[in-house]
C-alpha cells in the first residue's frame, strides 16, 4: 500500500510539469509481468494515456516490444506499479465540456492502494476545444475488491469544470461506499476547491 504523502508528491509533480512519470519520455529500468506470471526485467517506456502501449526492451540495444493492457498483468518502475484497467467511464474532455463521460476500453492505472477497496490513478488524454490543444484529465478509479464483476468507478481530479459536474460524478461513489456512511458523507460535502486526498486517506485507512 502506498501512503498519502507519496501520492501528494506524485500529484504535485503531475500538476507542476504535466504527466511527468520517469518513463514518459525515455526508457528507464523496469519490470513487466506477463499473463503467465513470467517476469521480464529490462527497460520500459510509456506515455501515460489510454492510447499508448507500453514499450519494453531487454537493454538499450534491443528492439522494443509493445504491450497493450490486455497483454500483461502489471509493470513497475521507480517504485511505481501499474495494472490494466478495463471498461469504465472516465471524466475527460467531453465531460468537462458537455457532461458526457468517456468510455475507456482499456488503459493502465497506477496502483495507489489495495485492500477492501482498490484505488488507482490514471490520466485520460482528450482535446480541449477552448485551448485548442490536447490535455490530460486525471481520474481516481475505485473498485470493490470483492465485486465479482470487478466494476470500476472513476472520479475526476482537479479538472477545470463547473461544480455541478463534480456533483453529478459523485453518484457512482455513493453506490460503491454505501456501507461506509462516513465516506459517503465526506464525498457529499466535498467541493472542488477542497482536498480530495482526504477522502483517499479515509479509504486507505479501511484498507489497513
Give the SSE map.
Elements (H helix, E strand, L loop, with lengths): L3 H14 L10 E7 L4 E7 L8 E4 L7 E3 L4 E6 L2 E11 L2 H6 L3 E12 L3 E12 L4 E12 L8 E4 L6 H7 L1 H6 L4 H9 L7 H11 L1
Antiparallel strand pairs: 1-2, 1-5, 2-3, 3-4, 5-6, 6-7, 7-8, 8-9, 9-10
What can you see in these coordinates?
The chain is an alpha+beta fold and 208 residues long. Helices cover 25% and strands 38% of the residues. It contains 6 helices and 10 strands, in the order αββββββαββββαααα. It has helices at residues 4-17, 93-98, 163-169, 171-176, 181-189, 197-207; strands spanning 28-34, 39-45, 54-57, 65-67, 72-77, 80-90, 102-113, 117-128, 133-144, 153-156. It has a 10-stranded antiparallel sheet with strand order 4-3-2-1-5-6-7-8-9-10. The longest helix is centred in the first third of the chain and has 14 residues, at 4-17. The model is unreliable at 1-5 and 12-18 (pLDDT under 50).
Approximately how much beta-strand content do the residues carry?
35-45%
- Terminal-residue CA separation: 8 Å
Biggest sheet features: 10 strands, antiparallel
- Compute the number of strand runs: 10
For the largest beta sheet, what order do the strands appear in spatially? 4-3-2-1-5-6-7-8-9-10
Order of H and E elements: HEEEEEEHEEEEHHHH
Mean pLDDT: 90
Radius of gyration, whole Å: 17 Å
Task: Give me the secondary-structure category.
Answer: alpha+beta
Low-confidence stretches at least 5 residues in length (pLDDT < 50)?
1-5, 12-18
Helical amount: 25-40%
Number of helices: 6
Shape descriptor = globular
